[in-house]
Design a protein that fits this description.
By secondary structure, the protein is mainly beta. The protein has no helices and twelve strands. The chain has two domains: 113 residues, no CATH class; 28 residues, no CATH class. Strand 11 and strand 12 form a beta hairpin.
Length: 163
């Protein structure tokens, strides 16, 4: 989906259909999926959708498309680089609006003993492009039970000391 500011929301087969935002400066930003760490004895490398280069376990389907809303479902099953599956599956529903706003609903079927990472920002920029300097600010703050705000990113793009 392309927006008036030239940003695009992309499901690219080269990344196992992992959804990401692509800007007009050829930069990308991904807000993560459901990633887990397997038992070392059974799996090789990371167990995540990016390992599915042959698209054996990843699918994208447009469920609704109108002038006011696009609803896309991305489903995947995590695997390692040898295509051994971990036994979980995820469905991510993205609701995209014409102004560039997006909401995400993630349904995860998990192994009871596994731990998952659900939020991480990954960004990239093509080596051949000379777009603007990327600077990351504290875009999100968490508030804990004591009502203390904790920025997820520090001023220079690194985790803040408070986190």
């Amino acid at each position: 989906m392309t927006f008036p500011n030239a940003a695009r929301f992309v499901f690219w087969r080269g990344d196992g259909y992992v959804p990401f935002w692509a800007s007009r400066y050829n930069t990308g930003l991904c807000y993560e999926w459901a990633e887990t760490t397997p038992t070392p004895a059974a799996f090789r490398d990371s167990v995540e959708p990016l390992m599915d280069k042959e698209l054996r376990h990843s699918r994208v389907k447009i469920l609704e498309s109108s002038t006011s809303l696009v609803h896309v479902r991305w489903s995947c099953q995590t695997c390692d680089c040898s295509y051994r599956v971990f036994g979980d599956s995820a469905e991510g529903d993205s609701y995209l609006y014409p102004d560039g706003f997006r909401t995400r609903e993630l349904t995860l079927k998990i192994k009871p003993s596994a731990e998952y990472e659900l939020v991480e920002q990954s960004r990239g920029q093509a080596h051949s492009e000379r777009g603007p300097i990327i600077r990351q600010y504290a875009a999100v703050n968490l508030t804990n039970v004591s009502l203390v705000e904790i920025p997820l990113l520090g001023e220079k793009g690194f985790p803040s000391e408070a986190a």
